[in-house]
Each structure stands twice: as C-alpha cells, then as structure tokens.
Write a structure and sequence with these properties.
Length: 328
C-alpha cells in the first residue's frame, strides 16, 4: 500500500495495508524548480493516481509556475499574484517508488490556461488540485478546480480520457460535450481561447474544490467530498466537510454535511486547527486505486495546526470513520 504525501517534495506512506503504513523518507517526485515557465516543471504536488496492476502508476500533478522568480516576468512580484496553476501528467514504472513526467517530446501538460503567463491580475489563476481518478465505462475521469480568469469561469472542471498513458489526451466538459482541449500557449499561440477552457460543473451546487470522488458499489453513483460553508434549512451557517452524489458526474445532489470543522480557507482565531483536502477511502475497495467504496470507510483529511490564526508547517494526516447509506 502506497499513500501519497503530496508536497513539492513528494513522499509516501508505505505498508502491507492502509492501516499499517509508515513514512518512507525517499522522495518519489520533485519538480526541477525550472524558472522557465514553458517547461511546466517548477513545483509539483502529486494528486490523483491510477493503476491497473500496482506496478505502472499514472498521476495528475498540481504544478505551480512561480512567475515572481523571473526578473520582469511578473510586475506584482508577489506569490499569489504571480502564481499560475497548471495540471501535468506523471507516471511511475516501479510501483510508485519514483515518478517521471509522462509522454515524450514536450512538457506533459494536462490542463493550463490558453493565455501564456497572465500579469493583469491580483491573485492566482489557472487549474489546480486534481482529484483522484476513477474509471467509468472505459473512460477515466477526474476533477480540477479553475479560478476565474477571462473566458474561464470559476468552478470544478470535469476532465476525461480513454488513454491514461497520454497526458495530452484529456478533454474537458464545455457545457455540451467533452470536446474542450487544453492547449499549451507557449507552443500553440494565437488560438481562440474560448475553445480551450472548461465549463464548470454544477457550480450552483458545489462551489468549492472537490477533494475526492469514489464510486458507491451499492448503486454505481459517484460520491464527491469537499470543504464548504453553507446554510442549513434553518438559515444557520454550517462549516465543514460535505458530500454530494451523481449518476453522470454532471448533475449533483444538494450537499449533505459529513462533519463540522473549520476549513482552511475560512480559518479564524476561534479554533486551533483547520482542515482541508478531504477524500474517502474504503480499506476494502475492490480496485487497486481505491476508486470504490462500500457501506463504510474513512474520510481522510489534512489537519493544519494554527499559530495565532496562521497556517504552520505542523500538519497531520487524520481520518474519521464514516458509514454510507443509500438514499431511499
């Protein structure tokens, strides 16, 4: 069992079962910190992984391009205002012990804005935080989160491919079908940007980043989990981790609260911890990549220790047992 510790220096927890994993100190993937934005190889966090056999492992990585490090590249000169988020493809041929960029001949870009490096903004832009990957009817699906910028609306973008080996084969939902192809603007300039962005899915239902998706074995529906702050039927604001379900990955049910918790993006001084990056894992899953869940499992989360309301490097991996019931 390999449980990825996602970081710009990616490592893993390894053990005979998911209940017995221990840290392995070796780095399984590290970007080269290239200051050349067109390399798409600055800092990368491994996100969604998929394997059919436990030996060859494909991954989607959250890859940050830090424009402030290049003189004259980003006039704002600050991290957030100079951050371009992208998604790239990685592959491991040794059971997850090490990863390399997927594909050949050019950077393995899965998703990036069609605008090169935008400098006319005050905060981050791009596609971030890929979910895990699930297979349905011969297609591989994942979500990435888009910040709003020009033709790209803010929300969760649904992407899919039939060839998980090829990072350039992923296509996004454009509101009608999966024909939106992300382009590398450093190598394919001059194309119409409107044709190369996604249409966020169910933004009126799920307005925050989806952390993980799993197929519920009892019904075949997909469960998504995410952090949010919403009003209940009585008008009370509730903050925590929510779930929503879908039969087609496009239409989602009204979110249900799993647990109340302070989420990372809404941290305050009232709590010592903040939580984020939720995902559901069933130790008895029937797929190598833990794509499915039965009537019980665990909600895995990152717990941030706060110091005077600020995030620190002191963070914990925690899990909460959950029971899953089919709606009647």
């Amino acid at each position: 069992m390999n449980l990825i510790i996602s970081h710009n220096d990616n490592r893993a927890l390894v053990g005979p079962t998911i209940n017995e994993v221990r840290p392995r100190c070796s780095v399984i993937y590290r970007g080269t910190r290239s200051a050349r934005l067109a390399d798409f190889d600055d800092l990368s966090w491994i996100g969604g992984v998929y394997t059919r056999d436990g030996q060859t492992v494909y991954a989607l990585a959250h890859t940050e391009l830090r424009g402030e490090r290049i003189h004259g590249q980003c006039p704002a000169g600050r991290y957030s205002a100079c951050l371009l988020n992208t998604v790239t493809g990685l592959v491991s041929r040794d059971g997850g012990r090490s990863f390399q960029p997927a594909g050949t001949g050019r950077p393995p870009v899965v998703a990036t804005l069609p605008y090169g490096f935008p400098t006319d903004r005050t905060a981050r832009v791009g596609y971030a935080n890929p979910s895990n990957i699930i297979e349905r009817d011969g297609w591989f699906y994942a979500f990435v989160f888009a910040d709003g910028y020009k033709d790209q609306r803010r929300g969760n973008c649904l992407i899919r491919t039939k060839d998980i080996e090829d990072p350039f084969s992923w296509r996004a939902w454009n509101g009608t079908d999966f024909s939106a192809q992300f382009i590398d603007p450093f190598r394919e300039p001059g194309k119409d940007p409107k044709l190369h962005v996604c249409a966020p899915v169910a933004s009126n239902v799920i307005g925050r980043m989806i952390g993980g998706i799993v197929t519920y074995r009892d019904s075949g529906s997909v469960i998504a989990v995410f952090g949010d702050k919403r009003q209940d039927a009585n008008g009370r604001w509730i903050e925590g981790i929510f779930s929503s379900t879908s039969s087609d990955l496009l239409t989602w049910t009204r979110p249900s609260l799993i647990m109340e918790a302070q989420v990372l993006w809404d941290k305050s001084c009232e709590e010592p911890h903040a939580y984020f990056y939720p995902t559901l894992i069933d130790p008895d899953a029937r797929t190598f990549s833990f794509e499915d869940v039965g009537t019980s499992g665990f909600l895995y989360l990152t717990r941030y220790q706060l110091d005077k309301c600020q995030v620190t490097w002191d963070r914990d991996l925690v899990r909460v047992p959950v029971t899953i019931q089919k709606m009647r």
